# Entry
Amino acid sequence: MDVSTMIQPPDSTRPRLRGSQIAIPCWFMRGGTSRGPFFRADDLPRDPISRDAVLLAAMGSPDVRQIDGLGGGNPLTSKVGIVGLSERANADLEFQFAQLQPDSDLVDLTPNCGNMLAAVVPFALEAGLLAPHGDTTTARVLTLNTGLAAEIIVSTPVGDSGRYVEYSGDARIDGVPGMASPISINFLDTAGSVCSALLPTGNVRDRVELAGVGPVDVTCIDNGQPLVIIAASALGRTGYESAAALNADEELTSHLEPLRLTCGELMGLGDVTAKNYPKMTLVSPPRHGGAISTRSFIPHVCHDSIGVLAAVTAATACVLDGTVAREVATVARGTEITVSIEHPAGEFSVELGIDPDDPQHVTKSALLRTARLIMAGDVLVPRSTWLSSAVTSQEKQR
Ligand code: NQM
# Structure
């Protein structure tokens, strides 16, 4: 067989039968410190049951090693991006983020992921959804999970065969080796992304009774990601332990989950047993010149670094008087400030805009991420997972 008939550009393909399996066009991308397959919305079944079955099969969940799929055995590598063009006046692209888990068959479409968000515009350019429009391409992305909007700027210089997405560069983010091209993300409206308000309990601080520990002060806050912020010292930890040590700390995790369930109710989120939020965030004074030190549980595993919107939310808590974070943080005052969030793999800088007339009001946030296309091709899933008529009708045409 002529090799030219075997190799097709992935963007010229659609989902199709391949023996007993279905081949679905897929772009495997790193977004920030997360990683996962991206799909064009039109390439997946519309029926949610079938779509979830396809995503579980693609990732190899449930299985702790995800040996039969693309997942990497960790929540940070069990993420999926689904992207389509938007018909809304204020958005170019719509991004549906799906959080899967290695060890469960849950496909959660309710949380945000600012790391995977960083890969949305590069993906849209690679997959032919968007055309680059200059040395940089700016697109407005609406995250369907919570209605979060962001303006994202990606480098798209001219190469030998036209404009391309530049992945190489001199930006560095802690938690990812090496350097890469910067991607700027400006969040347009993050307060109360999942909750009803930035401070969903109405307070900067609440006191919660925790069995076996006693009263514990928490800050319940959502500036893009619902967080419960607790002083590490309140749970008898320094907050400087490694992620691995905290994950092995069964006494700590046995306290965190009941606290999470109680705070979930206080935050108006109802029963959060099967939800990936609120995330539990232990804080302590900074040790490396930053504003605060964090250990973020997402929500049952300690993050190797910290999520993007979790960092934005923690940074916001650092500037609000009365919060548990403010008490241990070192932050400058001003209307345009950088808040450096220390985490197990380094630090994460968040730019915050503060209302000059109201220092308790954070007006905007911005940050820098990197992303990279790792693989483009097809992911294959068993035919039985796809129950919709799309592939069957394609089959009839052959
Ligand atoms: O908070 C981890 C990640 C995330 C989410 C998680 C994220 C965010 O690091 O915006 O990026 O909280 O599950 O990808």
In short: Residues 1-11, 389-398 have pLDDT under 50 and may be disordered.
